[in-house]
Fold:
Amino acid sequence: MGRSIAIVLVVWAAVYLPGLGLPEIKGEEGRRILPAVTMLDTGNAAHDARELFRSYVVPMIGSEPYLRKPPLVNWLVAGSFKLFGARDEWTARLPSALCVLLVALAFVTVARGALGRGALWAAFAWLLNFGILEKGRLIEIEALYVSLFGLALICWLAFWQERRSPWLTWLIPAIFLGAGLLAKGPVHLLFFYSVVAAVLWRDRQLRALTHPAHFIGLILMLGIFAAWALPYLEMLRDTRVAGVWSRQFSGRVAGEDFQLNHWLLNSPRAVAYFLPWAALLPFVRVNLLSDQRERALAKGVVWGTAIPFLVVNLLPGDLPRYSMPALVPACWLVGVAVNANAFAWRVRLGRWGMDFS
Structure:
């Protein structure tokens, strides 16, 4: 394990740290940085604990509250600025890179028992796919919330396959899922519970969803979100916060800015995020897995990932990046296939009888 951790650290440092602060702030990065700067400035000028608390609960851009996203990414940027004593591109983007590292380390530690020698390859697939390479070097929400989802799913899959305590299996992922709610809202829950339900169904263990540990986990997850959301809504009770959140959701479903040419490319672009590793997936054969429980879990991961991936990319108002949580189970499948050598390099194209090998 120590060797795998060292390899992951070296690869991560070589890929994610050089030039991290060189590109100028672009895209949505300003919306992640400006509220963090305001938090620090207003917090330093606060006259009492109430003002200090409000400065971190309500993200601000200038004099206006920022209502579109929860503040976890702003908190991390503010913490990075405070820790390093500098406010620049490098310190702003470091939290994204560190989140990516945590998932890679989870693959080679938490998932090592489940993935065996494939754990390191799952970590490579995570660190070196186009989507994470792009988002992990920017301070955007995707790197953070996909990483939190990844930590939750890796823990759940590993603990379930290893038959660990239900309390461990449900409560540890709930912490990361709750933090994910503070990053981007409930999008990641669709992917998490789709995979979980599919795995349990394939394993004929759907009753596990009724275990008390799961319900306590749900309370823990919602409690983490409520610890911020309740005081936030109270402080902004005269502002239409719920209306902003509901319009975001309805706009994605209804496709207010629908463009047919972009919508048709949603799925191909989403698949491209997993390149070059996506080229391996057509050759993975989960039926080659000898262990029945491992085979059921892998099939559950396949179906539990494919369904929300298609649903999200077919919604008229969604963008390819909204399906980025699918990268995590895809990396898991790479690890499973490498560990069991579950590849079929010879592909036969139906009735035409053409073979490629």
User: Anything to note?
Assistant: The chain has 17 helices and four strands. Residues 122 and 334 are 6 Å apart (CA to CA).
